[in-house]
Write a structure and sequence with these properties.
By secondary structure, the chain is α/β, with parallel strands linked by helices. It has twelve helices and twelve strands. It has a six-stranded parallel beta sheet with strand order 2-1-3-4-5-11. Strands 7-6-8-9 form a four-stranded parallel beta sheet, with helices on both faces. Helix 11 links the parallel strand 8 and strand 9. Helix 1 packs across helix 2, helix 1 packs across helix 3 and helix 10 crosses helix 11. The chain is elongated, with a radius of gyration of 26 Å.
Length: 354
C-alpha cells in the first residue's frame, strides 16, 4: 500500500537528534540549554543535526524536567501609550540575554482584563511576572493575584505588605520640581490635570502637587484639580471648561505628556498664549514632547532603564536573591518652550536616550 502523503509527519525527538549527531541525549540537552561542558566540534555537530531535522525543543517537557519554563509574563496597561513600549524593550532585552522569553499581556487599563491576565499567566506556569500600573483592583486582591507567582516585580506600584520587588519613579520629586520651576517664573494660580484612577503614581503625584503648593505658601484650591480619563477629547473638554471658568489660571501641571499635549491644543484654539499667559508641563518625556508645535517642558523618566532594572530585579528573585526590595529612579527636569525660561536645571534631551 502506498504511504499516505497526507499523514502528519511524526515529531522529531531528542533521541533523533542524538542519533543523527552520534552523541548522548544528555549532550544534546546541554547544547540546547547552553549548560555544561561541550566541545566546540560536538556542539557544532549537534546544532547541525537540529537544523537538518528541523527540531524544536518541547517547552512543556523541558519545563517539567527543570521546573522552569524559561518564560516570564509582562503585564502592561496600554501598548498604545508611548511610555510602555520602552519598558517592554528594556525587559525583553535583558530577559533574552538570559535565555528567557517574554509573554506581554495588554490590559487596556481594564481591571477585569488585569485580573484575567494575571490568572492566565499563572495558569501557563510562567517563572515570574513584571506588572506595570494596575488601576481599579483593591490592593489586597491584587496582592493575592501577584502572590500566585513564584517571583514578581512591580513597576511604578507599591503594594503594602507584599513581597514583590519594586522599581518606580520618584513621582513626588518630579511634581515638586515642576511646581518649583513655574513658581520661580512668578506663577501663582496653578491647576493640576490628572486621571481619576486610584493607582499609586496618581496618588503620589497629586499629593506632591498639594504639598508643593503649601511649601510655597500658595492656596490648594480643589476646584483647580481636574480629574479626567486619559483620552485626548476628554482631556480637551475638561481643560476647556477649566480655563473658561477660571481665566486666572497661569500654570497647568499635567499628570503626563499625553494629557499636556491636549492642554496645549486647548490653549492654542482658545487663543491663550503659552507660556506668556499659561505655562504647561507634562511628565515622562515621551518622544512627542519635542515634536509638538510648542515643545513641552516635562520630567524625563528613563523608561528603558525602568524595564531593564525590573528585569534584572526579577532575575535576582528567580535566582533566590531578594536582597533588593525597591529601586527608586529620580526623574530630571527638561525645560522647553511651554514654560518661561525660569532658573532651573536642564535635564537630558531626547538625543540622550529614552
Amino acid at each position: 500500500m502506498a504511504p499516505n502523503k497526507n499523514k502528519r509527519q511524526q515529531s522529531v525527538t531528542l533521541v533523533d537528534v542524538a542519533t543523527r549527531a552520534h552523541v548522548s541525549i544528555k549532550t544534546v540537552s546541554r547544547v540546547i540549554n547552553n549548560e555544561g561542558p561541550v566541545s566546540t566540534a560536538t556542539r557544532e555537530r549537534v546544532l547541525k543535526a537540529i537544523k537538518e531535522l528541523n527540531y524544536y525543543p518541547n517547552r512543556a517537557a523541558r519545563s517539567l524536567a527543570s521546573s522552569r519554563s524559561r518564560v516570564i509574563g509582562l503585564l502592561v496597561p496600554s501598548i498604545a501609550n508611548p511610555f510602555f513600549p520602552f519598558i517592554i524593550l528594556g525587559v525583553t532585552r535583558v530577559m533574552h540575554e538570559h535565555s528567557y522569553d517574554v509573554l506581554v499581556y495588554n490590559t487596556d487599563i481594564a481591571p477585569d482584563r488585569s485580573r484575567k491576565g494575571l490568572k492566565l499567566l499563572a495558569e501557563n506556569h510562567v517563572d515570574g511576572v513584571i506588572v506595570c500600573s494596575v488601576p481599579g483592583i483593591p490592593d489586597d486582591e491584587l496582592g493575592a493575584l501577584i502572590n500566585k507567582h513564584q517571583a514578581a516585580v512591580l513597576i511604578n506600584m507599591v503594594l503594602p505588605g507584599n513581597n514583590a520587588g519594586v522599581v518606580r519613579v520618584d513621582d513626588a520629586h518630579g511634581v515638586k520640581a515642576l511646581v518649583e520651576h513655574v513658581v520661580a517664573a512668578g506663577r501663582k494660580t496653578l491647576a493640576f490635570v490628572t486621571n481619576p484612577t486610584d493607582k499609586f503614581s496618581t496618588r503620589e503625584r497629586l499629593n506632591a502637587f498639594r504639598e508643593a503648593l503649601r511649601s510655597h505658601h500658595l492656596p490648594v484650591d480643589e476646584a483647580l484639580i481636574v480629574r479626567t480619563p486619559n483620552e485626548s477629547e476628554k482631556v480637551y473638554a475638561a481643560t476647556q471648561a477649566l480655563l473658561q471658568a477660571r481665566p486666572d489660571v497661569d500654570a497647568i501641571i499635567c499628570y503626563n505628556d499625553m494629557m499636556a499635549a491636549s492642554v496645549l491644543r486647548v490653549c492654542m484654539e482658545m487663543g491663550i498664549n503659552v507660556p506668556e499667559q499659561v505655562a504647561v508641563t507634562g511628565f515622562d518625556n515621551i518622544p512627542l514632547t519635542d515634536l509638538l508645535k510648542q515643545s513641552l517642558t516635562t520630567m524625563h523618566v528613563p523608561k528603558l532603564e525602568l524595564g531593564i532594572k525590573a528585569a534584572e530585579l526579577l532575575l535576582d528573585r528567580l535566582n533566590g536573591d531578594s536582597t533588593v526590595g525597591e529601586i527608586v529612579i529620580t526623574p530630571e527636569l527638561v525645560i522647553r518652550e511651554s514654560t518661561p525660561n525660569a532658573p532651573g536645571p536642564r535635564g537630558p534631551q531626547p538625543s540622550s536616550g529614552w
